[in-house]
Amino acid sequence: MVGEDNQPVNEVLEIQALDDALKPLSQRVSVTRETGEFLLSLPPAAARLDHVLIQVTAPRAGGLFPQREFSVDPRPGVTAPLVLENAGAAVVVSGRVVDRAGQPVADAGVYLQGKVRGGGQFHSLTVRTRADGRFELQSLPSLPDTPLTLYAIPPSGAVSGITRQATLVPPGGLSSQEVVCPNKVIVQGALLRPEGGPAAGVKVVADPVGAVPGWPRPAQGAEVSSATDEDGVYSLRLDPGEYRFDFMPGENLPRVSRFVPVLAAETMQVEPFTLSKGRRVTGRVTLSDPQRQIPSRVAPYADIQFFRVVNVAGKPTAIRLAQTVADSAGDYTATLPTR
Length: 339
Prior knowledge:
By secondary structure, this protein is mainly β. Helix content is about 0%, strand content about 45%. The chain has one helix at about 45, and strands spanning about 1-5, 15-20, 30, 50-55, 70, 85, 90-100, 110-115, 120-125, 125-130, 135-140, 150-155, 165, 175-180, 185-190, 205-210, 225, 235-240, 240-250, 255-260, 265-270, 275, 280-285, 285-290, 295-300, 305-310, 315-325, 330-335.
């Protein structure tokens, strides 16, 4: 691993072999800093492929070393030197994040990412805006004809939503960049009771579970909740993303969920959803140790949860159906959906 001057790169580097789907074929190993040498151990099947991807990262470079991939034929066992082109010197990008009314957005996360010189993928460190909405971060220059993408992510409680902005970063840096955040998407829908008619007073929780194309995934754990009105209508303000909507009636109706992709727009209407009828499940929680021949005994106040496993984007995902707590005698009752 060498630089453009054919000398070892003066940086702590790590490499890993990947397949075309970017799945790891090896452990991540360090490059010898003094010589640029590295040694990867591949499984026999991977060593017979006509090519693998060698991913190079610099974990201690503070975000100023772009990630690179090289296509390498692993069959000879020894590769020609991999040349890391110079991506340019770090520059300063500064600006201000505001809402649609021109007011500053405080505590927003701001970062730049995209392709830079040498074919690497750059992702700057994330900085937070100050009370006046201003930020300053270090970046690498963009390619002359390929801007980087600047992302501004307001805090979860803000009315303003995530924004992205194409940004050409010249070798001299960039100042006074103004970033305007749109409002979050207003997502509205209606819930119906199993026998028909509006379902009023139902708690609705939107939990982000993934990203939609072109947008970063909403922050993990940034749940947004609302309740249906007398007409069964709910309204949520959300960033673009993939969400799990949990509908939690307060009566003898079960909790149900559905997955909803939210795309960038002013407003979005979700199709009406009919709640499920419930079936009551009762039982008792006991503790036992057959090996020690200890008699069974009740487990008071045990937490009990019921889940259903469904496929989401090809991956098995557990959806909680109900949660309850056993009483002092270990007895519990839960309401589960009939479908």
